[in-house]
Design brief:
This protein is an alpha/beta fold and 320 residues long. Helix content is 33%, strand content 18%. Helix 3 runs parallel beside helix 4 and helix 7 crosses helix 9. It starts with a helix and ends with a strand.
């Protein structure tokens, strides 16, 4: 038991207190859960098996007997009120080196502004769960810029000291991310390239690349091969998009990647920052603990009240 709790203690957690908190939240249910300053969640407790869930107030059930189906309409969630300490972060607060990456963007949105102190101002592991369209890619961009600044010496980027890896769930998304980051980070002299089953890079090209956008399967293969050990040793930032896939068929691949990265950190005693992004992740606290994220400081969960465009949901059940 002591050996199992060792990594928790190294990250500043009290294993006994963490277990007690988890058991208390599971027993008490969502309404009495203490979510802390970075969890903007009004529905679930964040741990697996957490209490009962119910449809929100205002939900309508319409029975269409003639056509033999039932319709359930869930109204859009009211936007969350602004907290007293909230403020929009102007992009002028980023360093002069980073400014070109925000060309045409005067300020961060609400979610990005809340995440900013951890994403850009610290090097801590981080998990961000927010609705689609909330700007999670920009949160990833801030972690990339923080990493670049750590390897900036007298205005010169020390390219041979680091690599950034962005794990995208699909090849199509990998191409989209590569295009988006290439355009913006290219202004900083950064090279971003896609490395999937459909694309191949020579060792020279990989050596000249600052950021690799990969699929889980591709990065899993590369981290298994001893011939790529020199590359993986240079990784300083690992971004995993759509991390809720841990619960899907491909989850074992993501789990292996994360476990291998954590093992590398322990073995080499060198820091690799892990950043998880997800749109839907009900058991976000369990995933945060797995990523070695401080759940009270570096975990951000935003429910649908933070969705930029309110969304009405309709479910149709056909009767048998």
């Amino acid at each position: 038991e002591e050996e199992k709790d060792g990594w928790l203690k190294k990250q500043g957690f009290d294993p006994a207190a963490l277990r007690a908190q988890r058991e208390a939240e599971l027993a008490a249910g969502p309404q009495s859960s203490n979510r802390g300053p970075t969890s903007f969640d009004g529905s679930v407790a964040g741990f697996a098996g957490a209490a009962k869930l119910a449809l929100p107030p205002g939900t309508k059930r319409i029975l269409h007997e003639k056509d033999n189906y039932e319709e359930i309409l869930v109204p859009p969630q009211t936007k969350a009120p602004v907290r007293g300490s909230e403020r929009r972060i102007p992009t002028t607060e980023f360093s002069a080196f980073c400014q070109p990456a925000f060309e045409g963007i005067p300020e961060l949105n609400r979610v990005q502004s809340i995440v900013y102190p951890v994403a850009y101002k610290s090097g801590n592991n981080m998990l961000v769960c927010a609705p689609t369209g909330a700007g999670k890619t920009e949160c990833a961009m801030m972690t990339v810029l923080h990493c670049l600044e750590q390897h900036l010496h007298r205005g010169v980027l020390k390219s041979d000291e680091f690599k950034i890896v962005y794990v995208a769930p699909m090849k199509a998304l990998a191409s989209e991310i590569t295009d988006k980051f290439s355009k913006r980070l290219g202004r900083l002299g950064m090279v971003v390239k896609e490395l999937t089953g459909d694309t191949q890079l020579s060792r020279k090209e990989i050596g000249e690349t600052h950021m690799l956008v990969v699929t889980p399967e591709k990065w899993d293969i590369m981290t298994r091969k001893s011939s790529d050990a020199a590359l993986t040793a240079l990784v300083k930032l690992l971004i995993i998009d759509e991390i809720h896939l841990l619960n899907e068929d491909r989850g074992a691949v993501l789990e292996a990647i994360i476990a291998r990265t954590l093992r590398q950190v322990e073995r080499s005693q060198s820091m690799i920052r892990i950043v998880g992004l997800s749109a839907t992740l009900p058991t976000y606290k369990d995933v945060a603990v797995f990523l070695r994220v401080n759940v009270d400081r570096d975990l951000f969960y935003f429910d649908n009240a933070y969705r930029p465009v309110p969304l009405e949901t309709a479910f149709i059940g056909v009767m048998g």
